[in-house]
Amino acid sequence: MKISVIGGGLAGCEAACYLAHRGYDVTVTEMRGVKSTPCHKTDRLAELVCSNSLKAVGEDTASGMLKAEIDRLGGTLLALARKAAVPAGGALAVDREKFSLLVEEELQRLGVKVVREEAESLPKEGITIVACGPMVSDKMAECLAQKCGAGLHFYDAVAPIVSAASVDMNSAFFAARYDKGEADYLNCPMNREEYSAFREALLGAEKAVLHDFEKGDVFEGCMPIEVLAARGEDAMRYGPLRPVGLRLADGSRPYAVLQLRKENLAGDAYNLVGFQTNLKFSEQKRVFSLIPALREAEFLRYGIMHRNTYLNAPACLNADFSLKSDPNVFIVGQLSGVEGYVESMASGLIGAINAARRAKGEEPFIAPPTTICGALSRHLTAAASNFQPMNANFGILPPLEGGKIKDKKMRKRAYTLRGMHDLEEACAAAGL
Ligand SMILES: Cc1cc2nc3c(=O)[nH]c(=O)nc-3n(C[C@H](O)[C@H](O)[C@H](O)COP(=O)(O)OP(=O)(O)OC[C@H]3O[C@@H](n4cnc5c(N)ncnc54)[C@H](O)[C@@H]3O)c2cc1C
């Protein structure tokens, strides 16, 4: 049976792999190659647009719990990400080029057809999974608006990348916070004066364009560094520039520290962690070069900011990610109202599971509310007047039965244990 996937990003590729593994005849339509988006840099499938981190892996983290759920449900992309991993302490970070290559090889191996064109409308027949992401093309956005009402949006930002060779190693040092795990991060310390001068320059720097995000329309989890800096003298020191758990060579604690994370396996490029920005490119070079270790930094990619579109999911989506107005159409990924790389993969996977179930005439599979997948589905479909995209976090899970566990780590593990137990039961009941 044929199933069409529109959009060859994280959600679309995850969905395509799941369905092709199970014998469906899958076509992925991807416009990059003939038409790009404001944030993608290549025509590769499953391109990561910003950070190369797929976040934490520990079972006492919400992202770790979501990863365990994806593994149980038969996801493919995380397994490929592990093969493309670069060292990143307790996080799963990847060499983005290798990751894309592995995904493309897997799709080819599974016999998935990839068509390079902009889909301007939905197929009239059959089952379709729409995974066009936050930078959905205008024509497809229009088509979806006609089917389910106008899309919503916020503004999102990308962090710059510098070449490793250009980092001044006399002013930088490798270390893991609290010496936990391998020393994977390259730390760029600042003293009080350097920090103040940097913040002042940041606040006075010229922005690329003045958009609505100036009015506060930004996603908290991906806030531009200049917006954070404006929140107060120490806001950055409690955020991406926090110095806790790091020591200088003389044993003292630095005043503020920017961490750089490896971009690729070769280790010749580094991402400025938490430094997503909307400054003009020339201003990024001027202001970020005030950080001593970046004095001579060569910028391989500058940060950018742009519109991030998503549907008003409570009004138009069912909990299985199908459209209320047309249950043969599934909307997955960021466009559906989840936020994040791994969350997008998860929704692609659940959408594919349900597309397959619909094709076979089976009941939808809705993950239990005690799982991150299930809680995200609930968030998407619960009526909210001001619907906002959601990422994996423990706050969306129902409270633990039997009262609160005081120890934070134990409490988080208890969420994971409960969720995985419930997921196992739900999968057994659904024959998954
Ligand atoms: C600027 C920015 C920075 C982000 N940074 C992070 C981050 O650091 N960490 C994180 O976890 N999440 C981040 N996100 C959030 C989000 O997780 C990613 O955008 C993620 O890639 C979404 O996955 P997706 O599969 O939904 O969309 P995408 O990965 O964007 O894939 C969608 C695909 O659909 C294609 N497409 C669009 N329209 C059409 C059409 N009409 N026909 C055919 N193809 C089409 C696009 O070319 C694209 O390849 C960021 C988002 C943005 C916008």
| % residues in beta strands | 15-25%
Count of the separate structural domains: 2
State the CATH superfamily name of the largest domain. FAD/NAD(P)-binding domain
* Poorly predicted runs of 5 or more residues: 210-216
Shape estimate: globular
Going by CATH, the architecture of the largest domain would be: 3-Layer(bba) Sandwich
CATH class of the largest domain: Alpha Beta
Reading side by side through the largest sheet, how are the strands ordered? 10-11-12-13-9-14
Structural class: alpha/beta
Helix content: 25-40%
Total helical elements: 12
Mean pLDDT: 92
The ligands found in this model are: flavin-adenine dinucleotide
Number of strands: 16
Largest sheet report: 6 strands, antiparallel
For this structure, the CATH topology of the largest domain is FAD/NAD(P)-binding domain
Distance from first to last alpha carbon? 19 Å
How is this structure best described in words?
Helix 1 runs parallel beside helix 10 and helix 2 packs parallel to helix 12 (408-430). The protein is an alpha/beta fold. The model is unreliable at 210-216 (pLDDT under 50). It has 2 domains: 2-151 and 311-430, 3-Layer(bba) Sandwich (FAD/NAD(P)-binding domain), CATH 3.50.50.60; 161-306, Beta Barrel (Elongation Factor Tu (Ef-tu), domain 3), CATH 2.40.30. It is 32% helix and 16% strand. A 6-stranded antiparallel β-sheet has the order 10-11-12-13-9-14. A 5-stranded parallel β-sheet has the order 6-2-1-7-16, covered by helices on one side. The protein has a 3-stranded antiparallel β-sheet with strand order 3-5-4. The protein is globular. The protein is built from 12 helices and 16 strands. The longest helix has 23 residues, at 408-430. Helix 1 (10-21) links the parallel strand 1 (2-6) and strand 2. It has helices at residues 10-21, 62-73, 77-83, 96-109, 138-148, 192-204, 225-229, 281-288, 313-316, 341-359, 372-381, 408-430; strands at 2-6, 25-30, 53-56, 85-86, 91-94, 113-116, 127-130, 152-157, 161-163, 173-175, 185-190, 256-262, 269-272, 299-301, 305-310, 329-331. Bound molecules: flavin-adenine dinucleotide. Residues 6-12, 29-32, 37, 39-40, 49-51, 118-119, 131-137, 140, 156, 158, 222, 306, 308, 333-335, 339-341, 344 line the site of flavin-adenine dinucleotide.
